[in-house]
Amino acid sequence: MKGVSDERINAPVRGPDEIFEASRLTGDATREDLESIRRRTSVYVYEAPVRVWHWVNALAITILVVTGYLIASPLPSMQIGEATDQFVMGYIRFAHFAAGVVMSVGFFGRIYWAFVGNRHAWQMFYIPIFNKRYWKEFVFELRWYFFLEEEPKKYIGHNPLAHAAMFTFITLGITFMMITGWALYAEGAGQGGVTDSLFGWVLGYVQNSQRLHTLHHLGMWAIVIFAIIHIYAAVREDVMSRQSMVSTMISGHRTFKDDRIE
Amino acid sequence: MSDIETFYDVMRRQGITRRSFMKFCSLTAAALGLGPSFVPKIAEAMETKPRTPVVWVHGLECTCCSESFIRSAHPLAKDVVLSMISLDYDDTLMAAAGHAAEAAFEETIAKYKGNYILAVEGNPPLNEDGMFCITGGKPFVEKLRHAAEGAKAIISWGACASYGCVQAAAPNPTRATPVHKVITDKPIIKVPGCPPIAEVMTGVITYMLTFDRMPELDRQGRPAMFYSQRIHDKCYRRPHFDAGQFVEHWDDENARKGYCLYKMGCKGPTTYNACSTVRWNGGVSFPIQSGHGCIGCSEDGFWDQGSFYDRLTTIKQFGIEATADKIGWTATGLVGAGVAAHAAVSVLKRAQKKNEEA
């Protein structure tokens, strides 16, 4: 905002009656509406690769959770044909592995974009744990969720609470699921293969394959819980906070509902 | 070592024909996954190499490894294996007892220092200075350390020596400890299983004698030729798994049809062993073939993973025993309820605020 004074932002250049012809033509625009859209602006937060990643990742996680659960607790036995003509578990496992590969490739793409994208693309990959101000804001946001604050603050990227959740469940969580998942895949792919040479050490560390399966399974539940909270919080914030949420992940623009400073 | 007869000498002395001997060499080559060109090499090794002295010691164990070992069908333990190796000391199998046995033990480890293989069945308990397992009047751990000192290599027979097995299961009051955590300066081959398959045991020994080196080991120190694949990977019921055809209850129609035992908690998908290929009792059968799932006896800490009929490890940290799924559903339910309650309060709060403003 260099060179633009508050005076310049707030001073009406022309009266609302003289502008927004198109808006007025629809007939429903009140004087207050026009005054409002004149002042409210948006920030471009999520660039296209981040948005594409988000939705691809969401789809991959949905497929992974559903198929993963069905691999651990299979569907009732089906008698479509002889075992040679029937491949129910095979297709479920294929979908799981395919979605796992998509998620892994997407995650690496996302990491790449953290480096070449805008500042907001980097936010998910770190928590400013030594920044006192961060923790103060973290507590404030927590209080907002406990109904102890009258009004939330404005945020452009993630709010401090969402920032921590995103880092824990997506950055760390997906990394954990990828490492354990690929290690499980390496078991089936066989020793000496590419996946085994990259991820075989995980089983060597965990020692028992059943424990490894259990860890991967617990990870799934962590991500399911995150997804519930994530979707609820996104919708709730969209309704109750001072900025847009859901549409931001579609258009990339964060729009604000008021022009107050705090 | 010139005073030890070669394997071939011993076999001929025991009345084994050359024809039977060559048959054994072929079977051994096949069991080890070697081509026909290795048959003469095995034969030559057995004709010329002096037998490797083996000292077989027993710690905390149930002797199921020995029981399995003496039932090896290819080769027959009676005819060949006990002669192949120069089993100079095995307090369970040897005729000598008491002081005579202990003298043989001392003599062997002194005479063949650096050349003998130490086979360990069972493991040493370390609590109370090892007093929970006394052999020959001394704690077993002392005997193990003493015998390991001059050993060329150590074979850890069975789940006890490899991982600790039942005596090391939580809370492990005697602090039974697997061999590799007590002896750290010797090459150790783990041959886990409770017990290991007889042919796997004789196969490992035959390999070491034939090639005079350790077989290729995997990351956990097990011979890769027998432990590199899961039972599930080579199970004859695998097509039913891929098809999604499972035994749903014991003795149901699907069980009679021989469907996959996955839903009955079969641990084949998480167990590395050769049961589904080598099978047991001379290739007659193995647990899954007889209609019961694998219990994962050759895996690390198999007693501490919860039920033999669960495919997910029991998690005890939550006070009551729970599985990952129980915890997952409970947590998801709680979070779901929490979200619903939070949403309700949010709506009420907002309505209240609007009322105040109005």
Task: Give me a quick take on this structure.
The complex is a heterodimer of chains A (262) and B (358). With 262 residues, chain A is mostly helical.
Percent in helix of chain B: 25-40%
Let me know the largest β-sheet of chain B: 5 strands, parallel
What is the overall silhouette of chain A?
Answer: elongated
The coarse silhouette of chain B is: elongated
- CATH uppermost class of the largest domain in chain B: Alpha Beta
Could you give the order of strands across the largest sheet of chain B? 2-1-3-6-7
Q: Kindly identify the CATH topology of the largest domain in chain B.
A: Rossmann fold
Q: What count of helical segments of chain A does DSSP give? A: 10
Radius of gyration of chain B, rounded? 26 Å
Overall structural class of chain A, as computed from helix and strand content, comes to mainly alpha
Helix content estimate of chain A: 55-70%
Q: What are the low-pLDDT stretches of chain B, counting only 5+ consecutive residues below 50?
A: none
Q: Helices and strands of chain B, in N-to-C order?
A: HHHEHHEHEEEHEHEHHHHHH
Strand order of the largest sheet of chain A: 1-2
CATH architecture of the largest domain in chain B: 3-Layer(aba) Sandwich
Keywords (chain A): Cell membrane, Electron transport, Heme, Iron, Membrane, Metal-binding, Transmembrane, Transmembrane helix, Transport
Main location (chain A): membrane
Organism (chain A): Rhodobacter capsulatus (Rhodopseudomonas capsulata)
GO molecular function, one term (chain A): electron transfer activity
